[in-house]
Each structure stands twice: as C-alpha cells, then as structure tokens.
Amino acid sequence: MKWVRVQTGEGIRWGYHLQDGRIQTVVGEPWGGFADQGAPVSASQVGLSVPVFPRKLIAIGRNYAKHAAERGNEVPAEPLFFLVSPTALIGDGEAIRLPNREDRIDHEAELAVVIGTGGKDISEENAWDHIFGYACAMDITNRVQQEKDGQFTRSKSYDTFKPIGPWIETDWQPSDRIIRLWVNQELKQEGSTSEMVHSIPRLIATVSAVFPLESGDVILTGTPDGVGPLAPGDNVEMEIEGLGRLSHPVVG
C-alpha cells in the first residue's frame, strides 16, 4: 500500500492510493487507528505534502564501502548515525535550494525506512516487525561545512536538503534493490541495497539501544558511491527498484 499526506480543506491528512490511482483520505495515522474519510479523490484534486513528518530523522553515514572509500574514510565497525532536522524534508517535485553557491553541495541517493511500531532496545531479530514502510530519499550535503564542523548535522539540515517520497510503500522488500541517481539525465550513482555494510535490522537495533524509536521516525540508510556536486539549474532524479522515483529542480 502506498501512503501519502495530502493538503485538504481541513488541513493535512493521511491517505492511501487505490488501485485506480485515486487517493482515499483517512482520519488518524496509518500505524495507529484510522478510518476512511469521505469519497476517494484524484491526485489532481489534492496537493501532495511530504509523505511523513517524523519526530526524529536519523541518518547513517558510510554504510556503503565504496562510498566510504571515495570520501577517504574507513568503514565503521558499528553503524555511524546522527540526527538531522526533520524541517529539511521536502516532497517529490519541490525545489532543492542551495544557500551557499560557493560551497560544494553533494547529492546522495538513499533508502528511507519508516518506523511503524516504536520501541527501545529492539533486537535485530524483531526489527522487521517495527518497520511500517519504505521511501526514496536524497541526502543533500554541504561538504565544506561538514569538513569544517567535523560532524554532520549542520551540513545536512538546511531547508530542502532532504527530499523524500513520493510515498511510503508498505508492500515492498528491500533486499538487493538497485538505487540510481541522475543529474541532468546523466547517471551518477548506481548501487544495490545488498551492499549495505550494516543491515537494516542492525541499524534499528543500534539506534534503539540509545534512544526509543517512535512511530513515524525515519532512518536514512546510507548512500552508494558516485556522490557529486549540484548546481543551480540542475535537475536531479533518483529511483529505487520497485519502490518509486523522485525528481527535483535545483535552484540558488
């Protein structure tokens, strides 16, 4: 099932795609109790919003060996994770804004994992039971600030730096799926989710050992190699096999 968040006359509502392409809006949240609200509507009748707005947006660094190598880094023995501001999230088609044109600002294509059932100290064996669904995502990064700070939060938290969507898919399996990214229709990144150094269950177990994961929280699972700079006027697109596709203009 493909879940979205849409703009209605009563504010932002959750909804899900029907087989005919229309959207059925609901009252409540998909991981809790919800009920259908009104008649289904066509996608053109509503404005799509960011498909999830988490309390916590957690990113994983250096989770693909080739990407770690291209940045001159070692592969971490344990998952390397950090928090990013959820206000950086944007939905499919929205513009990515580059606030510092003189800095190198890179694209990173990633698989996003959305938590459905929260928990603390979740075991790897039980981690799959806590996943609600998956989405495509990009992790836009100001490399100059990242290297200056020695940590990641500021360089990755600017407004529009975290595209996600176009929906959350609940009926999809993440094993050995191809991730691709293009800039101006030129292929820049291509890898497989099977190349992750640390598996999705291990990421969930490691993060939840530090603080509780809550329904709607998002984990960005790392990027394959091939990251590179964006510039105003570019168009950046990415897709994950069987999951979806994002497309975004880049502006200054």
UniProtKB/TrEMBL annotation:
Residues 1-48 form the Rv2993c-like N-terminal domain. InterPro entries: Fumarylacetoacetase-like_C, Fumarylacetoacetase_C_sf, Rv2993c-like_N. The keyword Metal-binding applies. The keyword Kinase does not apply. Coiled coil: none annotated. Keywords: Metal-binding. Residues 56-251 form the Fumarylacetoacetase-like C-terminal domain. PANTHER family: ACYLPYRUVASE, ACYLPYRUVASE FAHD1, MITOCHONDRIAL. Belongs to the FAH family. This is 2-keto-4-pentenoate hydratase/2-oxohepta-3-ene-1,7-dioic acid hydratase in catechol pathway.
